[in-house]
Design goal:
- The complex is a heterodimer of chains A (65) and B (419).
- Chain A is an alpha+beta fold.
- Chain A has two helices and four strands; from the N terminus they run βαββαβ.
- Chain A is 22% helix and 22% strand.
- In chain A, strand 2 and strand 3 form a beta hairpin.
- With 419 residues, chain B is α/β, with parallel strands linked by helices.
- In chain B, 26% of the residues lie in helices and 28% in strands.
- Chain B is built from nine helices and 26 strands.
- The longest helix of chain B is centred in the middle third of the chain and has 18 residues.
- Chain B is globular and about 55 Å long.
- Classes of the chains: A alpha+beta (65), B alpha/beta (419).
- Chains A and B meet through helix 1 and helix 2 of A and helix 7, strand 22 and helix 8 of B.
- Chain A: Its cofactor is [3Fe-4S] cluster.
C-alpha cells in the first residue's frame, strides 16, 4: 500500500495539507504535522498526494505501490 | 490546423504551452499530465535557472538557512519523467493569438493549441537610482546579488514595511546586521489588518533590534554600494551599506501589450482563468486578474497557496472544458518575521477587529485576531504562532460561521493549549 511520510524538520505548520485532506493530516499544538494514517489506500491516493503537493516546504511524500 | 481548433477547444492531445516557470506555471504543467493531457507540454521560463519557488527568497534563502538548490520546483530529470519540455533562459516577447504562436527572445517560435499565461509579477521598480548597492528582491539573481552585497560592512536600510520589507529586515537582523525599516505609513500593516494589530507588528521589529522610521517617506538615495545615503522626508539621513526596496509589484504583462489579450496590470480573465474572447488561452498566478463572483472589481492574487490552487483548477478546466473548476479556498497568506509565524486567512483588511485572543507580547507570542466585515460572521483572522487556531479560523470562515461561535471555539482552543 502507498506510504505517506512527513519530514518534521521541514514542516513549518502552514497546514495546507490539513485543509486539503483532514482525514489524513492534522497539526499539533506546536504547529507540526501529525499523520493520522500512513498507509494510504489506492482510492485515496490522488487526494492525499494533492494535499502533499500543497505543502510550501515539500515536507510530505507518498511512496510505493 | 487541428480539427478541434474551432468551437469546442482542443482535445487532450493538443500542444500546451505554458509561459512562466514560477510555481503557477510549473504546477499547471504537472497538473495537465495528472489530468490526462497526452499532447506535448512546453514550459517557458525567462531565467536560465531550473524553475524555483519564490517564498523562500525573503526567508530561508536570505538568512542562509537554505541554499538555492533546496527551492527548486522542477529539475531536468523530473521534467523529463513528467514529459514536460523546459525552454529556459529566453523570455517570451510576443504573442500572436490568431496564429496561435508565441515568439521567444532568442528568435524561436512555439505553436500551441492551449496557452497558459503565467509570467507573474515583477518588483515595482525603485524610483531611486544610486550608482550601486540598491536591491529589489523578486528572483534568484536578485537574491544572489543581495547576498553578495550583504557581505559589505555597515547598516542596511529597507524601504517598504510590507511583507517583503518586513521579512528582509527580519532576515538581515538574523544575520546580525543593523537595519532600519522605512515606510511612509505610520503602521505599514494597517491596510492589511487594521491599526491595532498592525501596531503589534511595528513593535515586533523594535523588539528585535530593528529601527523603524515609519510615517516617513524617502526623498533620495545616493552614493554607491558600501557608502549610500538615504534622505528622509523628515529631514533625516541614514547611512547605509546596502538598501533593499520592497514597494509592491507590477504584473509582467508588457510582452502582451500588442496581442489583443485584455490587460489591466495583469491579464483579465474569469474565475476559471479563461481569457474572454480567446478560446484556449488561460491565465494563472500573479499575472491573472480574475473576475470573481461577488462585489468588487477583478483582482490579482499574489499568494502562493492561491497560485497552487489556480494551477490545479486550470488544468482541470483545460482537460474538462464543460465542467470548469475554480479556486474555492479561503484566502491564506503567511509571513515569517523574527520569532513570529504570521498566518492571515480570509480578508481582515477593511473589516472590523472584533477581538484579540491570546498574548501578542509574550515570548513567544501567540494570538488570534478575529475580524468581521458585517459584525455577524467571521470574515478574516490574523494568527501568530498558532497554526491550530489558523485551521479553525479557516474552516469557520469557509462555513460562514457566526462570530460569537468562532470566538467561543477559539477561546476554548486557547485554554486547552495552555493547559
Amino acid at each position: 500500500m502507498p506510504e505517506l511520510t512527513a519530514d518534521l524538520g521541514a514542516c513549518q505548520g502552514y497546514a495546507n495539507c490539513v485543509v486539503a485532506a483532514p482525514d489524513t493530516y492534522d497539526i499539533d499544538d506546536d504547529g507540526l504535522v501529525v499523520l493520522v494514517r500512513t498507509e494510504i489506500p489506492e482510492e485515496d491516493r490522488a487526494r492525499v498526494e494533492e494535499a502533499a503537493r500543497s505543502c510550501p516546504v515539500s515536507a510530505l511524500k507518498v511512496d510505493g505501490k | 490546423m487541428s480539427a478541434h481548433a474551432v468551437g469546442r477547444g482542443p482535445g487532450a492531445d493538443g500542444r500546451a504551452v505554458i509561459v512562466g516557470a514560477s510555481v503557477a506555471g510549473v504546477r499547471t504543467a504537472q497538473a495537465l499530465r495528472r489530468e490526462g493531457w497526452t499532447g506535448p507540454v512546453t514550459l517557458v521560463g525567462d531565467e536560465p535557472h531550473p524553475p524555483y519557488d519564490k517564498p523562500p527568497l525573503s526567508k530561508q534563502l536570505l538568512t542562509g538557512a537554505w541554499e538555492p538548490g533546496r527551492a527548486v520546483l522542477l529539475d531536468g530529470p523530473a521534467a523529463r519523467e513528467a514529459g514536460i519540455t523546459l525552454r529556459l533562459g529566453s523570455p517570451a516577447v510576443r504573442l500572436d493569438p490568431a496564429g496561435r504562436r508565441v515568439s521567444l527572445a532568442d528568435g524561436q517560435t512555439l505553436s500551441y493549441d492551449v496557452l497558459v499565461l503565467a509570467t507573474g509579477a515583477a518588483a515595482r521598480p525603485s524610483p531611486w537610482r544610486p550608482g550601486s548597492g540598491l536591491h529589489v528582491l523578486r528572483g534568484l539573481d536578485d537574491l544572489l546579488a543581495l547576498r553578495r552585497d550583504l557581505e559589505l560592512p555597515g547598516p542596511v536600510v529597507v524601504v517598504g514595511g510590507g511583507f517583503i520589507g518586513a521579512e528582509v529586515a527580519s532576515a538581515v537582523r538574523a544575520r546580525g546586521r543593523e537595519v532600519t525599516l522605512v515606510d511612509p505609513l505610520p503602521v505599514p500593516m494597517a491596510r492589511l489588518m487594521g491599526e491595532e494589530v498592525g501596531a503589534h507588528f511595528n513593535g515586533l521589529h523594535r523588539r528585535h533590534g530593528a529601527v523603524t522610521a515609519f510615517g516617513t517617506g524617502v526623498e533620495s538615495i545616493t552614493g554607491r554600494a558600501g557608502a549610500l545615503t538615504v534622505r528622509l522626508s523628515d529631514g533625516g539621513a541614514l547611512p547605509a551599506a546596502t538598501v533593499v526596496v520592497g514597494i509592491g509589484s507590477v504584473a509582467n504583462d508588457a510582452w502582451l501589450r500588442d496581442s489583443g489579450i485584455p490587460l489591466e496590470d495583469g491579464v483579465l480573465c474569469d474565475e476559471y482563468g479563461r481569457v474572454p474572447g480567446h478560446l484556449g488561452v488561460y491565465a494563472v498566478g500573479d499575472l491573472a486578474r480574475r473576475r470573481l463572483p461577488g462585489p468588487g472589481g477583478p483582482q490579482r492574487s499574489e499568494h502562493w497557496t492561491s497560485a497552487v490552487e489556480q494551477a490545479a483548477c486550470v488544468a482541470r478546466t483545460i482537460t474538462r472544458p464543460s465542467a470548469p473548476s475554480a479556486e474555492a479556498s479561503v484566502p491564506y497568506v503567511w509571513s515569517d518575521q523574527y520569532d513570529w509565524k504570521a498566518q492571515i486567512v480570509g480578508a481582515p483588511g477593511g473589516a472590523r477587529l472584533h477581538r484579540l485572543i491570546g498574548d501578542p507580547d509574550g515570548s513567544p507570542a501567540r494570538f488570534a485576531a478575529l475580524y468581521s466585515g458585517d459584525g455577524a460572521r467571521l470574515t478574516g483572522a490574523v494568527l501568530v504562532n498558532w497554526p491550530r487556531a489558523m485551521l479553525m479560523a479557516r474552516r469557520l470562515i469557509a462555513e460562514e460561521g457566526a462570530l460569537a461561535h468562532a470566538e467561543r471555539e477559539l477561546t476554548a482552543t486557547g485554554q486547552v493549549s495552555r493547559a
